[in-house]
Amino acid sequence: MSAAGRMGWRTVRAQVHAAILDGTFAPGQKLPRDSDLAARLNCARSTVQRAMQDLARGGIVERRRKGGTRVRPDPVPRASFDIPIVRAEVEATGAAYGYRLLSRVLGPPPPSIAHRLSHTGDGAALRVEALHLEDDRPYLLEDRWISLATVPEIRDIDLTAISANEWLVQNRPYSRCKMEFSATVATDAQAARLGCAVGAPLFAMDRTTWRDASAITTVTALAAPGYRL
Amino acid sequence: MSAAGRMGWRTVRAQVHAAILDGTFAPGQKLPRDSDLAARLNCARSTVQRAMQDLARGGIVERRRKGGTRVRPDPVPRASFDIPIVRAEVEATGAAYGYRLLSRVLGPPPPSIAHRLSHTGDGAALRVEALHLEDDRPYLLEDRWISLATVPEIRDIDLTAISANEWLVQNRPYSRCKMEFSATVATDAQAARLGCAVGAPLFAMDRTTWRDASAITTVTALAAPGYRL
DNA sequence: AAGTGGTCTAGACCACTGA
DNA sequence: CAGTGGTCTAGACCACTTG
């Protein structure tokens, strides 16, 4: 770690990171305080601040007021990736995107879904099943519940023309989102819709979105066998 | 969006985000330039900068030099979560963590693995199969290949005492990491080791880590049925 | 060529928190 | 209570990109 030419915050980050990787700063060890690093690297403290904050965000170091900055003994693999819009994901592969509405039912959701939507009991919901296609082959099967309390307009939208997903994204931006991933095997009905064998392994994504404290929608999407995230 | 009391960058971010959610700034629309917002909110431009940069990182807006800041029409769900260390993940549930080495073999990896490790042909590797336990029940089955070219010391480590995962994390910090998730069904051998039925759905995580350009290890971990991420 | 975001600086004060 | 990170400011210059 030397104080050569101009030090941008990315350079500072790289230098400190390199020093951690090569053992100059051992796991658990305390790093010099920001102002000292700034002096040694010949830059402003705020530049070091920026760099260290980025390392902290990446799980490389841990910072505490008065406690100083320490190398994390367990570099947390902080995965961060974009969940692509289905249409974009399909079209990115060069394939043609298609969409088909399978069912659309108004009614009270079962308890498990009502709980996810934080429904207090009286709330009705719209259930939509749809299939996303990649070059006419089944790609993603979604089973969605939309809260009519939060999104009453959805009742009048023609969901054969636009997917609920896209309509919601464009008309009901959400402020919070929770996702879960798991694995299941295809039931008879799912296999028929996805065009795969019964018992085939399916990658499942559960997503619930909120606008402030009001749940908007909860969806379970099943990907055709072979899907990788 | 009013200029009330003290405006920290989090406050600025919240105000702008709220203005986007309530439609003051429509999707695709251009926002005022930073200095204007700063004037309107009665704070320094750099404070607005920080807030806007955070919104951009969250996929809410898109910024371009000279092009200005625009509301993203497709609020990208940017999932960001920590991949926990297995031991920590188990112990967080209050359960006892256990670990068992199943096999340990030195030899040339098959082509598919050699490719993932960027081996040029001559490189040998260490293959380790291990089982992570939660209260003595199978939790995660890992099948790992470690590059002896990058980590020769691993040959002399007693992997019955410490898991390869933990040893590597503590002794070979990595600078890059690639992960993939998918779903499979249990084979005979996997079912026996995980104590589940043949054909049960398994959540699979593939991870490869590098130190600079040298691959360190590649691992496929299978979670027992019921696992959710 | 000009406009807008990106970064750097020097200095100040605040907010946690460990000793 | 004292030390360290967190944030704010005002100003300057740079870098990219669009018209």
Notable characteristics:
homodimer; 229 residues; alpha+beta; 6-stranded antiparallel sheet; two-stranded antiparallel ribbon; 7 helices; 9 strands; elongated; DNA-binding
What does this structure look like?
- The structure is a homodimer of 229-residue chains.
- Chain A has 229 residues and is α+β, with helices and mostly antiparallel strands.
- Helix content of chain A is 27%, strand content 33%.
- Chain A is built from 7 helices and 9 strands, in the order αααβββαβαββαβαββ.
- Chain A has helices at 9-21, 34-41, 45-57, 86-92, 111-116, 164-171, 188-194; strands at residues 61-64, 68-71, 78-82, 97-107, 125-134, 137-147, 176-185, 201-211, 214-223.
- In chain A, the strands form 2 sheets. Chain A has a 6-stranded antiparallel sheet. Chain A has a two-stranded antiparallel sheet with strand order 1-2.
- In chain A, helix 1 (9-21) packs across helix 3 (45-57) and helix 2 packs across helix 3.
- The model of chain A has no long low-confidence stretch (mean pLDDT 87).
- At the A-B interface, helix 1, strand 3, strand 7 and strand 8 of A face helix 1, strand 3, strand 7 and strand 8 of B.
- The structure holds a DNA duplex (19 and 19 nucleotides).
Provide a quick synopsis of the model.
The structure is a homodimer of 229-residue chains. In chain A, helix 2 packs across helix 3.
How much helicity do the residues of chain A have? 25-40%
List segments of chain A where confidence is low: pLDDT < 50 over at least 5 consecutive residues. none
Mass-distribution shape of chain A: elongated
Largest sheet strand order of chain A: 4-5-6-9-8-7
Number of strands of chain A: 9
Q: What structural class do you assign from the helix and strand content of chain A?
A: alpha+beta
Could you tell me the radius of gyration of chain A in angstroms?
A: 24 Å
- Number of contiguous helices of chain A: 7
Order of helices and strands of chain A: HHHEEEHEHEEHEHEE
Oligomeric state of the chains in view? homodimer
Largest interface: A-B, 45 and 46 residues
Mean pLDDT across all amino acids of chain A? 87
Strand content of chain A: 25-35%
CA distance, first residue to last residue of chain A: 37 Å
The largest sheet of chain A, given as strand count, sense and whether it forms a barrel, is:
6 strands, antiparallel
